[in-house]
Automatic annotation (TrEMBL), chain A:
<keyword id="KW-0479">Metal-binding</keyword>
<keyword id="KW-0408">Iron</keyword>
<keyword id="KW-0004">4Fe-4S</keyword>
<keyword id="KW-0411">Iron-sulfur</keyword>
<dbReference type="InterPro" id="IPR054822">
    <property type="entry name" value="DsrO-like"/>
</dbReference>
<dbReference type="GO" id="GO:0051539">
    <property type="term" value="F:4 iron, 4 sulfur cluster binding"/>
</dbReference>
<protein>
    <submittedName>
        <fullName>Fe-S-cluster-containing hydrogenase components 1</fullName>
    </submittedName>
</protein>
<dbReference type="InterPro" id="IPR017900">
    <property type="entry name" value="4Fe4S_Fe_S_CS"/>
</dbReference>
<dbReference type="Pfam" id="PF13247">
    <property type="entry name" value="Fer4_11"/>
</dbReference>
From TrEMBL, chain B:
<dbReference type="InterPro" id="IPR036280">
    <property type="entry name" value="Multihaem_cyt_sf"/>
</dbReference>
<protein>
    <submittedName>
        <fullName>Cytochrome c family protein</fullName>
    </submittedName>
</protein>
<dbReference type="InterPro" id="IPR047668">
    <property type="entry name" value="DsrJ"/>
</dbReference>
Amino acid sequence: MRGKRMDRRTFLKVAGACVLGLGVMPVTDVFGGNDLPKILRNPNALVGKKWAMVVDMKKCWDNGEEGCVDCIRACHRTHNVPNIGNAKEEIKWIWTASYENAFPDQKNEYMEESLKGKPFIVLCNHCANPPCVRVCPTKATFKREDGIVIMDYHRCIGCRYCMAACPYGARSFNFKDPRPFIAEVNPKFPTREKGVVEKCNFCAERLAEGLLPACVEACKHGALVFGDLEDPESNVRKILRSNYIIQRKPQLGTKPNIYYIV
Amino acid sequence: MYNARNTVIGLILLIGLVSFPFWYSTGKAASAPQPKLDTPTIQELEEKRCVEATPYMRASHMQLLNEWRTSVIREGNRIYVAENGERYNMSLQNTCMECHSNKTQFCDRCHKYVGVKPDCWTCHIESKENKL
């Protein structure tokens, strides 16, 4: 008779095991399924941990014709950047600034004559410590894992805190509908609308397809070099190792990721 | 009651006016929109199927697009794997509008009917047919 009735100890053991099994069930549901992930990264995408660019101004000035703006034109055409034709409402992703304006803290009274008034190619510095991201109230601008400081135009409310925070003037505000000011619309990339801030996105949409940024591709003389700073063998690291490099306003601690050879 | 006659007539007129939209359109339900699918790209497809099944797309395309935009911009993932394993580039402008190039006939018909005005087209470029 004893074998047929379960004693209290055995009952508790079996009950405990059952409860444990129930507790494990949701875990097996999660890990046991073999559903494919629904959203993937493009296998051809360029992958980096900290994207950076070296701008070799020597190559730009020595090889390029006077007033060469291939990089600017390529960028602005690719991203439907309008040409408003009015300095106050200008929209720019990559542009030129004089040495004195680009590097205001690195000029002295008796500076090298050859640098005076020279045009420097400037763009968003994709800072490692970006002040624009810190001040954005809607998180419309944020830093991606690969170091690109990018904007989600869907979220931008046009408060322009980021413009106030950016020490490089790399951000532009759309005071009016930009569409009528785009000479040739690129149907592959969206335009922006009135009331949002915009800036260089390091061609995130091209990197995702395995292409280099449009400005880098457009420069015939290789003055613009793009690569991953975290990779010691990358082309940018090789250049940084063997050249004297300057950055824009390094004393502000924003850690810009655009480097200049002068 | 003073001026009972005038008051009653006024009341009847008022009720008539206020209820005018209701009885005027009784029995005249607006016909359901029928979005057109005949674009050259769709005609060329062997299996006429959107990224997901039609009932799902009809009911949830807005959630799908919302998911896409978050994933593309904020996570940098741009490939969508559909239920049948087919892969698509997650892009309203380049993927959706390539097939549905007839925006006025396809998108606008339903959006007008239900009275929603998505502001996608202030930035995303609609297909050429509408620019004429």
